[in-house]
TrEMBL record:
InterPro entries associated with the record: DUF6788
Region spans: Disordered: 1-23, 41-72
Biased composition (Acidic residues): 51-66
Signal peptide extent: none
Record's compositionally biased regions (Basic and acidic residues): 8-22, 41-50
DUF6788 domain ranges (all copies): 55-107
Lineage: Archaea, Methanobacteriati, Methanobacteriota, Stenosarchaea group, Halobacteria
Pfam families xref list: DUF6788 (PF20586)
Biological source species: Natronorubrum bangense JCM 10635
Full protein name: DUF6788 domain-containing protein
Length: 107
C-alpha cells in the first residue's frame, strides 16, 4: 500500500474529487456505500424502463397512430351534439388528445 493518496479516476469531476479529499475515512466509506447503492438503483431503473418499452411495443393496438403513445386511452367527446372518439394521454402536466373518428350511432 502506498503512502501517497490515490489519484481520482478521470471520470470523476474535479470539484467532487476535491470534496472527497476533505472527508474523514468514515464519511468516505458511507459515500462509497451510497454510491454503490445509487449505481444499483439506476441500473435497475434502466432495466425496468427497457422492459417497459419492450412491453409497450408488444401491447400497441393496431389502429394506434405512430405519434400517439401506447399508454393512450380512448375517450368520447361531445361537440355540437355529435360524439367523437379521441386518443388521450398525459404528457407531463398536460393532457394531450388526438382525433380518432366519429362514434357510430349504434353505440
Amino acid at each position: 500500500m502506498s503512502y501517497s493518496p490515490p489519484d481520482p479516476p478521470r471520470e470523476v469531476p474535479p470539484d467532487i474529487a476535491s470534496k472527497l479529499e476533505e472527508q474523514s475515512p468514515e464519511v468516505l466509506r458511507q459515500i462509497a456505500r451510497f454510491a454503490e447503492e445509487l449505481a444499483e438503483h439506476r441500473e435497475r431503473e434502466a432495466r425496468l424502463a427497457e422492459k417497459e418499452e419492450d412491453e409497450e411495443v408488444e401491447d400497441r393496438p393496431e389502429d394506434l397512430p405512430d405519434d400517439v403513445p401506447s399508454k393512450a386511452t380512448i375517450t368520447i367527446k361531445e361537440i355540437n351534439d355529435n360524439r367523437y372518439y379521441y386518443w388521450q394521454w398525459r404528457d407531463g402536466e398536460k393532457i394531450r388528445s388526438q382525433y380518432k373518428g366519429p362514434v357510430s350511432p349504434d353505440e
